[in-house]
Amino acid sequence: MTQTLPTRDELLAQNGVLLIVDDILPPSGPVAKGGTPTVRPMELGLFIAIDQDSRVYAFNGHVDLGTGIRTSLTQIVAEELDLQMDQVTMILGDTERAPNQGATIASATLQISAIPLRNAAAEARRYLLQQAGQRWAVSVESLVIESGVIKAQDGRELTFGQLLVNQRVELRISGNAPLKRLEDYKLVGQGAARVDIPGKATGELTYVHDMRLPDMLHGRVVRPPYAGYDTGDFVGTSLLDVDESSIAHIPGIVRVVVIRDFVGIVAMREEQAAKAARELKVTWKPWQHGLPDMSDIEQAIRDNPSIQRVVLDQGNVEEALAQASERMPRTYLWPYQIHGSIGPSCGLADYSEDGIRVWSGTQNPHMLRADLAWLLEYPEERIDIIRMEAAGCYGRNCADDVCADAVLLSRAVGRPVRVQLTREQEHAWEPKGTAQLMEVDGGLNADGGIAGYDFSTRYPSNNSPTLALLLTGRVEPVATMFEMGDRTSIPPYDIEHMRVTIHDMAPIVRASWMRGVSALPNTFAHESYIDELAFAAGVDPIEYRLRYLHDERAAELVRATAARADWTPRTQPMQIPEEDGVLRGRGFAYARYIHSKFPGFGAAWAAWVADVAIDKHTGDVSVTRVVIGHDAGMMVNPAGVQHQIHGNVIQSTSRVLKERVTFEESTVASKEWGGYPILTFPEVPKVDVLMMPRQAEPPMGAGESASVPSAAAIANAVYDATGIRFRELPITAERILAALNSAGVESNSQPPQSPKARRSKWLFGSLFAALGAVLGMAATALPWRAEIAPITPPAAGTWSSATLERGRLLAAVGDCAVCHTAPNGASNAGGLAMQTPFGTLYSSNITPDPDTGIGNWSYPAFERAMRDGISRDGKHLYPAFPYTAFRNIEDADMQALYAYLMSQTPVKQVQPANDMRFPFNVRPLMAGWNALYLRKGEVQTQPQQSAQWNRGQYLVNGLGHCAACHSPRDLLGAEKGGTSFLAGGTVDGWEAPALNSLSKAPTPWTEDQLFNYLSSGYSDAHGVAAGPMGPVVTELAKLPKSDVRAIAVYLAALNGPASGSAGIRPETATASTSQPTVSPQSLSNGQRVFEGSCQGCHADGLGPKLFGVSPSLATNTNVHSALPDNLIKVIQQGIDKPATADLGYMPGFKDSLSNTQISDLAAYLRSRFAPNEPQWTGLPEKVAHLKANPGTH
Amino acid sequence: MKADTSEQQQRAAEKTVTLNVNGQATSVTAMPDTPLLLILRNDLHLNGPKYGCGLGECGACTVIIDGVAARSCVFPLAGAQGREITTLEGIGSRNRPHPVQQAFIDEQAAQCGYCMNGMIMTAKALLDRNPHPTETQVRNELSANLCRCGTHLEILSAVMRAARRQPSTDPVQ
Known about the structure:
The structure holds two protein chains of two kinds.
Chain A: H1 8-13, E1 17-24, E2 43-51, E3 56-60, H2 69-81, E4 88-92, H3 109-136, E5 144-146, E6 149-151, E7 157-159, E8 168-172, H4 197-201, E9 217-222, E10 239-243, E11 253-259, E12 262-267, H5 270-279, E13 281-284, H6 297-303, E14 306-314, H7 317-322, E15 326-327, E16 330-334, E17 346-351, E18 356-360, H8 365-376, E19 383-387, H9 399-413, E20 417-420, H10 423-429, E21 432-433, E22 436-444, E23 450-460, H11 467-471, E24 498-505, E25 511-512, H12 519-537, H13 541-548, H14 552-564, E26 582-595, E27 601-615, E28 621-631, H15 638-657, E29 663-664, E30 667-668, E31 686-691, H16 704-707, H17 710-722, H18 733-742, H19 767-780, H20 801-813, H21 816-819, E32 833-836, E33 839-842, H22 859-868, H23 883-886, H24 891-902, E34 915-916, H25 925-933, H26 947-957, H27 963-966, E35 985-987, E36 990-992, H28 1007-1016, E37 1018-1019, E38 1023-1024, H29 1029-1036, H30 1041-1054, H31 1080-1094, H32 1117-1120, H33 1125-1133, H34 1155-1169, H35 1179-1188
Helix pairs in contact in A: 2-3, 8-9, 12-13, 12-17, 19-25, 20-24, 26-30, 28-30, 31-34, 33-35, 34-35
Chain B: H1 2-12, E1 15-21, E2 24-30, H2 36-43, E3 62-65, E4 68-71, H3 77-80, E5 84-86, H4 88-91, H5 99-106, H6 116-129, H7 135-141, H8 152-164
Parallel strand pairs in B: 1-5
Antiparallel strand pairs in B: 1-2, 3-4, 3-5
């Protein structure tokens, strides 16, 4: 564990130690445009320490982000000192230990910051050998080191530690200690197993997320609603109110901390903090004024103020272009993207007046320490950042933000606090990889040569100040401008007339560096453009590049890569024959990543040959294979380099084909993987890596540079396949299909279809017309009924155990507890709110409490309530209570039910008053309702039907009261009979599907399916029981199977003879005549959400086998219903209480997916899985309504 | 009065549940809707399963429940009672890795390694069910396990390597 290691100061003060140190000038970090670097004093950096126990510590200021630099740096140290890998303890990034070498960016660790470490190791080697030579009086040249043991030719041996007993030697890095010769290398250049992987594979490595301290508390933060903005006058000034009483019901809350727009919660347990953060009522000012329209990113970037900076102007571009024979102005747009660390950021802070310790996954430990000192007004040297491993990050995620959050909360409670951000917070607030706009004006001369190249780029991004500084008002939320858009802005080609202009600009939304910082987008433009020039000139694109590529090492790489890929020269696209509607193509691109402050320096060289396959009917595009050539100079760990190249190829392919942050109302709408899908296993291409043998050359930053040619290579391959240039990313199926259609390439896209609205729902408009009828009836019915005298509650032992057991089962059939139990409330004590079209009702207490329940109800009072809907006191009950069905209960059953209910434990609980709208708040009017609808008489036995059918009829229509939900109600809230009987209804916002032949299920219900569904809550041909039906199935599980079978027999018979066949209804072979009303953009968005959020469980056998039933949506009743309500409600709320235990759970998405995303998802599901049903209309409104009115199920 | 109600509500909100994790019975008191993931990590100090999304989308939290891969971030504590739960720690250790873990080590199938728990546990559940899957089957099985570093190729190699070593004996069972 890191914290048991000695600190730099401890080592410097120690005796029996060899210390290799150097004065270092800490880098200032990135500097705002026009700003001056913060000059920090020289520091003494410790690079190597060897103690008298032969322990070897090596220090580097950078951190391992999963790239394996811990292993590579260990190789370097072990090599120079002839140690085994496990004899070196490598310490990275800790501010109390490691030298400040700036941020870990640009894949520059091995290229730059490893150099002093290697020299330090050589310094130590020279000293140790000299000491041994002196002690033995032999020449240094005659000595060898093996595994940390110095050996003389006569066999004498000394360990490092033996030379250091009671010594304290401090040496500066001179830079002239001899380095080991390349040919003597044993470790460097060999594949080395990563030192961290065994611990990671077994759960034994402690990530920052796993760090815990004694006495530690858990924190969560509540972020402001301006998701993704860190500039503007609303930042830090928008909080109005925090209502702490809104979380009073949650146990374990320690403190709510509010500092301007910073809101945090500290709790004893993590789930308590998480729940409180979800439920805390926070009120914000309106703030959405003056934001750019983020639905048009290109325009938003053009409108963003900028300062022009010309970094290259050679020849005479304007004159040259004026004379071009073919002028080709082009615009390229890169979208906003996210780092998307798989683990949302986490930090742990322990604040005291004496010192602060922070365990962090930061990429920039020393910058974070400076930020925390500023935030807290606290001496920087007393803050210790302990860098722990974290989920991979490719620039700057929320790792620093969460540490600042943790420190603020720890300060407030005086104990260590661990803060874990949510997925939604990480997605919404991480500094984005910015959108970028590139423009090229250029063209060809008559001879096919490049006339000129006028390139400009706009990169709205900076360093993203740590969020707490802004939210607390410690730093003004003013957008600063950085000069970082210039990476690889100069193309690698020797073009006579060339100008490169950078439009420096502040961020629009919070943005910072992300892998391939500005170079990846710039290269997308350069390499797409030269490809286009080549085809316009009628020259093979590789040959054309080589004409202008005068860096011989680069040219060699390009040729080697082309050869490895069997590149066939081409001068026109679409040369590969189409197979089965699949268009194939291959594209090339080359780049050397030039990074850091302009003019910067080069990392590794990379070239791509990408193969793509495109389904011309759907537009679906995949990268099937990538051949990548890579020249990184000397490779310390070639296996590690290859692994990094793989990672960069896959991640950049994902960015090019799939990734785009979406915005709604100008704020970030991509708040989870459904809103931001990334490449998955089935989509991963084959990758063939060609590593140039250059072990004699200095090491170059590897990995990141491999991603730089990606976008252009893929776009060029898509051009090769289709003849269409894509200059905006991502290259999605939707964009390809649209382009193919407008280019006239044949495809099978469906013709536009028109809406066909069908909606059966309560109609409020006619309510007052009906009111007269009710009032008229009321005059002739008996509005008042007599009270039945209260009784003393019956004593225990009044009823036999057989009667009570019968009653218990009947209560299960009747689902009493389903409606008469509030969420987390006592069973049958009432209080469940039920939204009806006529207002909100609260279910009553049916425990035998005499004051608030039914304890003083006699059997006649109970029976009258059950059969006639009249309370003991004579009031009319609302027909939400299904007394119209309960009339049918046999007397013996009614008595058993009474016995059971009166024998429960009494619970004293008063219900909230009902909130019914006029005229339904006038209870006597219910008398009129009863006069209309309460049919006298019990269910009649049908002698021509089987006993099983008759039992089923009795259960369904009596105590089971299925029709209460599953029959439509008329304008007055009564169940309809006749053909409408069991033809579907609505309850608490849920559609109760038709149980008769009107069912919209794609597969008719069979008796067996009904039996399975009612027994388990799941039918593979229809889906799972959710909403109010979930508890119904839970209750039915208490019944004898024979009764469930009887219900199934009766219901199956309702469907008529056709119900016996289980086959899927024949779907019309031709395209449906129904007409969709949703745009291709909505469907495409819905598909993105489906793939990211849903497909893992709903993959129809093509995904993982996960716990639970993973229902198919192709047969799902809700997807085929005329109403989208159930589908939307399940998406929003999930299924947290499945009907039976083995069904599995579904999370709700109401907090992570926007209304638009859910609406688009529903439309997509409908069009994909119920293609013969008309598209739903009014989805956005319906989604918004159901979110605002979630109901109680 | 109000405070009393809150305290009652708070007390009523927690329940004691007995869990069977990696072959050991243990009881935990928490809100019944607490994700199993947090119980495993915070109460049982089993850090193998990781928090990734809380929505069952990424797979970092995968454990094996009654022999099937399960997303512990969306599996409530209340539903875990009486079930056999196995975590990454339960299948092997650094000194005695499970064959699937060993295959991941051999293939160096991690960059940051945060997704690795889910990859290994999902692969183990697959291989227990289907000892010799095709690469396409492995890709489909892992289709809802997200990796951001791009280690997919090494992970596929690791699972195929583990499959080649089947039949294997589980060191715990």
